[in-house]
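User: Please check token order:
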Amino acid sequence: MIITISGFHGTGKSTIGKLLAKKLNLNYYSTGYAFRDLAEEMNMTLEEFTIYTEKHPEIDEKLDEKVIKIGKTQDNIVIESLLSSYFLKDSADYKILLKASLETRIKRMIIRDNSDYQKKLKETEIREKSEIDRFRELYDIDINNKQLKKEIFDLIVETDDLTIKQVLDIILHKIKKEI
């Protein structure tokens, strides 16, 4: 079983992805972690690395090629990435989109990263604008296109007012109903 989880930063992708993988006894892969690791290896902040990637599309391409390869070579995995559902739309068994308001996402990331509001807001706005532009340019994918989301995703979950357990239960219910 291949499950993809997509969504903007702070929607709960990593938390839910890891828990879902554990609950279903699947492997787990996150491009978000890989992106952060690359930024750290280059001694850059996420904001600096995001700006750097705008001039170095090979970084996105390398990360995304890995997602595609994993999706084609592994059968039992949860892949968490902004674009995994788009790349694996024909091979993933379940494509899940997690959504939350910017306010909710910033609050979550402040706690996760032990950061302050203004810094995290600025970093997130820069990062997401860059990603939207890069993905449109590199892959002709508009991650804000509502019609495309309806076509790609099997399940869209608004996580603003839900606990982690509630989100996980909604996803598990959907998967178990279709097995």
